[in-house]
Design the sequence.
């Protein structure tokens, strides 16, 4: 397993389907493919949280998560040239403008650009992209700085580092060709139910309000 | 007449105006896919500002006026002004509907660009309507018509004022509506091409009416008694019959010519979208008042097929289909896709070759007269539209187009947005990108690739697995097509900036 060089990235981007590496649109191909990475841009769709109508996120409660996740997270779409202000400690989901299709012999890591990092912006926490993944990559954007950050769809915000895979790999994830950020599906973990409260535990009544004498 | 009367009336009118302005203020906060709805907000704001000034002037005029007659006239004008506000308020729905949440936003800009390139001095807004149909309307013309029974905009605004309202803004604001239920059915929105055709046709239709008026009149007057008996008794007078025949002819002409126009700019995709509508029609053959005198679907499909000239497309695709390389267990090449598509279009040809619609048309003498000589007019209609549309905007069966569609089809097969055609020559030096071109796909080619995929590939999945797989695939197709349109549009917008910077 080795990191692809700029030269190899550009070669793989020129290969035809189905084995080729697709990253589209590459608005500035030369500028975006440098230093053994590919710069990725911020897409125009976001998922923002709204705290007012959601009590807590309990991923073991699959049915409740299915029904209520929309109360907690809301889609937002900005036009190009419109700004999004990310406040300190705020978490939003965004996605890359580019749609990525990895062949079965490449995997990737999404990392932040240091210039943004120095301003406090974290762009991804789950950074590995499996071979055969197709879609826009969801970014978990958090402002760890002290000043609000102004983001515009289209700005270069992340980098993709590509690696060759020993043998071939597949993608068996839950996200099917996403074209924008997607809600979390942590509650689809097969064993999640096991770790949730047992029936007995769920039936234990909360303590009754004790009246002070 | 007391001053308090006008005071009360002006206050009430100001309240109405304030409500209208409040709605506009709210709409300024709504997110739209493009700036066009904001331009309509600007126009409405200017109208309301002028109306506000006029209200003050009316009050002042009333106070200095000595004659009851002129006071009555002022009261009438205030009432007229309120009517203007109320009817204009009804048009706020066009802006409300154009929000990002309610439109297939990724394609709005691209469709607007296409339409605005064809229509001069026009702002176009796309929005859903709850009525299950596509439609197009000129906002100001419709407003005028709405007022027509009771008032005229010119009674309130003189020419100078009206020009000032439009200063820096387009003269025409067109609303294109799509059925709200079909928001996510992206490929059906090819039908917006038909609506753009309507907007271009109005002048021609008026000319045709005067050209064929005499001929229709003579034929109606010369009907023999046997035919007379067949006419619905509610059309008693010759004038009624002539009016009805005109109406039927105009409707047939505009719908069929607009269908042909959609095919001129969107190619086979427009035929496939038309068929999807025809598929669920209660009758393929009837022309009736109940369906607002729309021409029979079978007639429309026949004309659309003739205009498309599928055999030429098929031959053109055939020359390049064998170059396609995609394979899977069900459909294994571009040639297979093309053949499945050809079978599908053959069934449409079969449908159109039946003549039940003509039999229906012949049952009613007025409809028969209306449809007589339609071919002649359609030919002129198509020529009229042709003259308004630059050759480069037409979607012709050239090798270049077929290659583009197949390249996009291949991308869809591998679940990649159909936004561009990549031509990559072997790299000369290690880092040389000079031999590489990424050409943004045209809107029409994206629609066609999407339709070809949907018609020729997805049904094989449906017959293989009628469970949710088909609908998941359809959802992915719709999203990829939308993304493809958005990306290619962005690539076109970005390219001039990139070239000047370099």
Sequence:
């Amino acid at each position: 397993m080795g990191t692809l060089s700029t030269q190899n990235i550009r070669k793989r981007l020129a290969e035809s389907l189905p084995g080729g590496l697709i990253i589209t649109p590459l608005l500035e191909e030369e500028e975006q493919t440098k230093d053994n990475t590919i710069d990725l841009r911020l897409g125009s769709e976001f998922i923002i949280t709204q705290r007012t109508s959601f009590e807590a996120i309990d991923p073991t409660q699959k049915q409740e998560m299915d029904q209520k996740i929309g109360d907690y997270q809301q889609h937002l779409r900005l036009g190009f040239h419109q700004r999004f202000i990310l406040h300190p400690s705020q978490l939003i989901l965004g996605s890359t403008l580019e749609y990525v299709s990895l062949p079965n012999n490449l995997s990737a890591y999404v990392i932040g650009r240091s210039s943004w990092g120095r301003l406090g912006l974290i762009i991804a926490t789950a950074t590995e992209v499996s071979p055969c993944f197709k879609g826009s990559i969801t970014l978990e954007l958090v402002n760890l700085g002290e000043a609000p950050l102004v983001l515009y769809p289209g700005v270069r915000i992340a980098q993709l580092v590509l690696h060759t895979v020993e043998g071939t790999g597949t993608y068996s994830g839950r996200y099917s060709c996403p074209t924008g950020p997607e809600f979390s599906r942590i509650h689809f973990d097969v064993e999640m139910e096991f770790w949730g409260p047992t029936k007995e535990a769920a039936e234990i009544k909360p303590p009754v309000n004790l009246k002070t004498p | 007449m007391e001053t308090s009367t006008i005071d009360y009336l002006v206050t009430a009118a100001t309240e109405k105006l304030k409500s209208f302005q409040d709605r506009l203020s709210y709409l300024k906060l709504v997110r739209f896919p493009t700036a066009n709805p904001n331009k309509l907000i600007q126009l409405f704001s200017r109208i309301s500002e002028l109306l506000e000034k006029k209200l003050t002037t009316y009050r002042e005029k009333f106070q200095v006026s000595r004659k009851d007659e002129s006071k009555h006239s002022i009261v009438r004008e205030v009432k007229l002004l309120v009517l203007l506000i109320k009817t204009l308020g009804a048009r706020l729905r066009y802006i409300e509907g154009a929000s990002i949440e309610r439109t297939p936003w990724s394609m709005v800009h691209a469709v607007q660009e296409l339409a605005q390139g064809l229509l001069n001095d026009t702002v176009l807004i796309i929005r859903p309507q709850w009525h299950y149909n596509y439609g197009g309307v000129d906002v100001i013309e419709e407003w005028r018509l709405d007022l027509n029974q009771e008032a005229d905009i010119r009674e309130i605004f003189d020419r100078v004022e009206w020009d000032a309202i439009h200063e820096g803004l387009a003269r025409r604001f067109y609303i294109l509506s799509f059925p709200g239920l079909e928001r996510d059915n992206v490929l059906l929105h090819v039908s917006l091409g038909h609506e753009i055709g309507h907007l271009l046709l109005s002048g021609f239709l008026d000319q045709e009416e005067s050209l064929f008026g005499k001929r229709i009149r003579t034929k109606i007057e010369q009907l023999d008694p046997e035919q007379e008996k067949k006419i619905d008794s509610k059309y008693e007078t010759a004038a009624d019959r002539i009016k009805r025949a005109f109406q039927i002819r105009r409707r047939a002409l505009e719908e069929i010519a607009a269908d042909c126009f959609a095919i001129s700019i969107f190619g086979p995709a427009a035929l496939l979208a038309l068929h999807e509508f025809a598929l669920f029609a209660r009758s393929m053959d009837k022309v009736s008042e109940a369906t607002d005198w729309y021409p029979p679907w079978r007639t429309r499909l026949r004309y659309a097929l003739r205009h498309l000239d599928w055999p030429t497309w098929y031959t053109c695709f055939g020359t390049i289909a064998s170059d396609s390389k995609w394979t899977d267990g069900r459909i294994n090449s571009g040639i297979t896709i093309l053949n499945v598509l050809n079978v599908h279009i053959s069934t449409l040809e079969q449908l159109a070759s039946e003549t039940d619609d003509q039999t229906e048309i012949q049952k009613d003498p007025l409809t028969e007269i209306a449809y007589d000589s339609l071919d002649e007019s359609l030919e002129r209609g198509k020529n009229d539209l042709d003259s308004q549309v630059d050759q480069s905007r037409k979607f012709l069966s050239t090798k270049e187009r077929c290659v583009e569609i197949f390249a996009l089809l291949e991308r869809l097969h591998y679940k990649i947005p159909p936004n561009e055609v990549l031509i990559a020559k072997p790299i000369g030096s290690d880092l040389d990108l000079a031999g590489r071109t990424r050409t943004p796909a045209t809107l029409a080619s994206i629609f066609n690739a999407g339709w070809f995929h949907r018609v020729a590939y997805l049904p094989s999945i449906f017959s293989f697995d009628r469970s949710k797989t088909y609908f998941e695939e359809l959802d992915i197709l719709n999203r990829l097509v939308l993304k493809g349109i958005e990306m290619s549009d962005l690539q076109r917008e970005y390219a001039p900036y990139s070239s000047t910077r370099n």
